[in-house]
């Protein structure tokens, strides 16, 4: 729980620190986009590979390596003298996150007796949600107090506690069926495609030939990724899993929903500080209601979806979120929190509560039980990739210049153009869900992480690979 919470904290805490980072390092808007996207890029591109490495070499071993890697990269982030160093360190942080995130849940799957496993997974997910909820508040307090560098440096003492405890008290486990062949080429091509397309979108305003070449190369790398995954005997992302129309449909809905979420949370943290005049702490605290609602009511939403089917929640949820984004148009200069900000965030939280648990359960129900972990990993990676592309593309679509975040008037005008775009993407997701999502078979059984508070990605489901023999001390 401690290790995975480190990664969840960083997915939410950094947005609040962006204006201060920009001023301190004299960074452009593009550099701030890369500060967010470099982390998401390597995490999304390598998270499936990280799970496979843990299955083969030992989940505890890979988890501890990920924790140490993440902490070392965090130290580099905290000491970064310029924006380029910070961006590189953030990319390295994502590699560590890709190693520790799937491993943390797989360790629980392997270490607890089946009768206790569901409760353990629920606690893991709940504490991770608390970490995500505390993230913006903690980040704001650190930025306004010791300084933005402590947003990253805080991970170092956490890792110094986490790694020794894991080595001493957590039993090692691995998948006895793992053959040790890893789809490194597929992972590299997938990450390269995302990197090139992201770079082209962020730098598109320059209009140079090099940017066009980068965009074409990114698309070519994506095509090569699909070709490699289709031809390899043990692909990172088996394409035959998309033979399930329900799985494909729900992942398309995921792309729409989490693209809008990624753009919303990236821009809102800036809007509250640059335009509304909030401090970093006030901006972080302002975002708490959305995550709190998810923590309190996601389990009930999942139970309701089991009764009525996922189609209605996955149709209504995005529409509620779209309404929330349009309500955010009220947030301008000197915005009043109770009147202008809170109503939008409450509606946003209600929409996310409505859709996240049913989305996860539908993904898991659309494939065979033994592929639920793979399906969850793909869905999680798709959500991260969607947020990555949104953070890159939305400032371009909204007409934000490189220095827009330094001018309240310019940023506010671009924000007012960006929110309807995000709302439109959510409406598209709602229409896709209404047209394509169907109720799973009545005899479908699966576990899922319903107590969930991370607003940037859906919850993960552990892989169901073979494990070591039962450990009696956990009975």
Automatic annotation (TrEMBL):
InterPro entries: EmrB-like, MFS, MFS_dom, MFS_trans_sf
Pfam families recorded: MFS_1 (PF07690)
Membrane topology: Multi-pass membrane protein
Domain Major facilitator superfamily (MFS) profile, first and last residues per copy: 1-441
Gene Ontology CC: one annotated term: plasma membrane
Record's keyword terms, sorted: Antibiotic resistance, Cell membrane, Membrane, Transmembrane, Transmembrane helix, Transport
Protein name, entry field: MFS transporter
Organism per entry: Streptomyces brasiliensis
